[in-house]
């Protein structure tokens, strides 16, 4: 007898092979049988007639680190079918830390990952942090080693060059993180302190991955230009002899998709083992404080607010607005820390400056002061069709880059990436078959990041699953109304337990939730769990 049976579905198993009709029999967290199970019985049976059953989606790039600690269930993610989150993207997160750096990271990440000072529980290591999530959440979690955390532990904050003594500590922390089950190392070259890391520094630090295993995942140095950033990322991995994964790769500005993909196919693939991820939207999102001159952060995030009193810094910030890739009427306020300023959420920066009656530079500089540097933006970078050739490419994986805040004008990717990928991208835009769409969001991601027995439907695999109507699955979130759950997804299952039905979270008995800390098999020294 099975604990759970799913009857009559069209199974898209995650491997890319054609769908087939089968029943699934699940015992505890494992798929025990796939086939014709008409004579079998189960404690619970779900009918999947005229529905697709596929593996739960794996989000390889997100900003769920703090939210998974704060809440056991991110409905905006699970309702899309995401059963696994690969955390600690962009080289910035809440671990590893010490007593000095922990409050700095909580302050810096307030408008990205949401954690508050009163929610710090004293963790220091990556292992400590991930153990706080293990069986405490309905989703699984895996992790990158965030490079900025390592650099600031070894060197403090600021533009100093990493010396040999400090490099030894950074390399040791990478080894330690890989031994704890990391998928690899992440960087965000436009974020705190990583902007000071040279190509040579990164080669020296990351070359340890050649021995330990693991992938280098990078938010590239976009401020140098997209093609220059791509060239640097490839150079780092070629010299370090390690695999490369590019985060949220998109054509920007005047650069067209063909130019990006020609570089990937004709240059990058010939030099390194490369993959990339993206979400199926062209507009992006990040923090307003990322527009500040770098030196405001040289004494750490907690001291940065004090530096905003410098008149020359205000003037430099104001002048720099003319150099931004997008005009201010194409950048919107998504979230503010204070309730008082939330009346401005959804306005463009140009509208905001006009409404408060100040020059744009002064208006935004004052807003950063009022909000203690914690303001989130959405960048309206153009038609979504521009990113479709990237989405379509065989090396592309699904990463939502979701940033979530309640009652905010956040990017709709936080609510819509998964269903848009499986629905409109298949049915309407015909970017790929449903089988290929599922593969790119499940087994290909699991293989790249060493998540054993996830991302596939087969006997012996873990029962992370979703059931949906292929004719209706779609995103509903828009830029004007971004916090709308999708349609067409009937059930989501993690570790054999139903966590969502028809967009409603389900009660799960017992003290342990089904989401597990997944240790990557990418580590040469780690036995995958």
Characterization of the model:
By secondary structure, this protein is α/β, with parallel strands linked by helices. The protein has two domains: 57-283 and 382-468, Metal-dependent hydrolases (TIM Barrel, Alpha-Beta Barrel); 286-379, no CATH class. Helices cover 31% and strands 19% of the residues. The protein is built from 19 helices and 21 strands. The protein has helices spanning 65-70, 75-78, 101-108, 126-133, 147-155, 164-179, 199-206, 209-212, 226-240, 257-271, 301-307, 311-320, 349-356, 360-370, 388-392, 413-422, 424-427, 434-441, 443-449; strands at residues 2-11, 20-27, 30-35, 42-47, 52-55, 57-59, 82-87, 140-143, 145-146, 184-188, 215-219, 244-246, 274-278, 284-287, 331-336, 375-379, 396-398, 465-468, 489-494, 497-501, 504-505. Strands 1, 2, 3, 4, 5, 18, 19, 20 and 21 form a nine-stranded mixed sheet that branches. A six-stranded parallel sheet has the order 9-10-11-12-13-17, sandwiched between helices. The chain starts with a strand and ends in a 24-residue tail after the last strand. The model has no long low-confidence stretch (mean pLDDT 97).
